[in-house]
Design a protein that fits this description.
With about 140 residues, this protein is of the alpha+beta class. The protein is built from four helices and five strands, in the order βααβββαβα. The chain has one domain (about 5-120): 3-Layer(aba) Sandwich (Aminopeptidase). It has a five-stranded mixed beta sheet with strand order 1-2-3-4-5. β2 and β3 (about 55-65) form a beta hairpin.
């Protein structure tokens, strides 16, 4: 793979159309999410992307946080055709590095299929999952 890829924390670089298509049509957790809801989520979050040399977005992730004690990593997506090239690792490493400056006590995420990826960046199964609760709409 000869192309160079860059990680960015700039919300202005997010290709909102592409991210909405990825999440609302291809993800297992956000199928059918409206564009309005996706834009509101982007606007209320820290946003991350990986881009190719031409500036085309190859991956996306966002974090919901108070910036002091807690963060939730969510909506992580790598373009289907780019999987297996290290793009997900670049995204995860960049996000973790960006969040380290906040000295957060806890960063949570939920994944159905990327446990191996996230474990490389310090994520582990909850030690007491029975203490966690959810209110699902």
């Amino acid at each position: 793979m000869s192309q160079q890829y860059t990680f960015s924390t700039s919300t202005h670089r997010i290709d909102r159309d592409r991210v909405h298509r990825w999440l609302s049509e291809q993800s297992y957790w956000a199928l059918g999410r409206t564009r309005r809801a996706q834009d509101a989520a982007i606007d209320a979050s820290r946003n991350y992307g990986v881009y190719d040399e031409s500036g085309e977005q190859m991956a996306y992730g966002r974090v919901v946080t108070d910036g002091v004690t807690f963060a939730w990593l969510c909506d992580v997506f790598v373009a289907t055709e780019m999987r297996g090239f290290g793009i997900g690792k670049m995204l995860a490493a960049g996000i973790v590095t960006d969040l380290e400056s906040f000295e957060l006590k806890r960063i949570l995420l939920s994944t159905g299929d990327a446990h191996g990826l996230y474990s490389q960046y310090g994520f582990a199964q909850l030690s007491e999952p029975s203490t966690m609760m959810a209110r699902v709409r």
